[in-house]
Amino acid sequence: xxxxxxxxxxxxxxxxxxxxxxxxxxxxxxxxxxxxxxxxxxxxxxxxxxxxxxxxxxxxxxxxxxxxxxxxxxxxxxxxxxxxxxxxxxxxxxxxxxxxxxxxxxxxxxxxxxxxxxxxxxxxxxxxxxxxxxxxxxxxxxxxxxxxxxxxxxxxxxxxxxxxxxxxxxxxxxxxxxxxxxxxxxxxxxxxxxxxxxxxxxxxxxxxxxxxxxxxxxxxxxxxxxxxxxxxxxxxxxxxxxxxxxxxxxxxxxxxxxxxxxxxxxxxxx
Length: 270
Description:
Blueprint: H1 3-28, E1 47-52, E2 55-56, E3 60-62, E4 69-70, H2 72-83, E5 87-92, H3 98-103, E6 109-115, H4 118-123, E7 125-126, E8 131-140, E9 156-159, H5 164-171, E10 175-178, H6 182-190, E11 196-200, H7 201-210, E12 216-232, H8 237-252, H9 255-264
Parallel strand pairs: 1-5, 1-6, 9-10
Antiparallel strand pairs: 2-3, 3-4, 6-12, 7-12, 8-11, 8-12
Helix pairs in contact: 1-8, 2-8, 2-9
């Protein structure tokens, strides 16, 4: 079991212990104990409202472009919800608007390969990471003057402004061309309108698996891996604890590995 999962499990044990004490005190005072999904403070009792793009293959997308919503993140959040006894309602939105919707109370959780970074940790709560992936600098196949992240200085890199990879590109001196996501970024790259884009390696591998003749390549990897997790508002401590315990169980029973193999060809949860 990974260190992060063990820490999550320990934190959950402490949380449950405190909750048990609080419940006992409440019952002693004649108050009614909270049970069921209501303890999580959900928008809709018994239903987990999940924000996701629905256009970010292989994590959250529609089969055949217009079919059922499927993907790595979709199946993991469904498995988590099943573990804690909740139904799932997906609400699709563009990534650049997803945190505003979370803060406005439209969703209970974001399931969209959200990378953990210091700024986001100040504003939101995160589950245990369920995806670990290095970042990569992607360039056109014929490019030979970018072979490291530092070579982005002075180059134009296509990035979503709310993505963790935007910070990587900007910190290394790139001129950022704002895009909505990977699909637009790689289109600009293939058209020769930008020099590079920074994203996670898993997205690149999925794209090239579907398009083996795509005229792009990995020029470099970032030093740090991206840790991606479910995101919540700060008032969802109990829901986060329940998610973490469910992720422990899903790792132990092999479900996380199975979903990773299905969509990405490997267990990418640790």
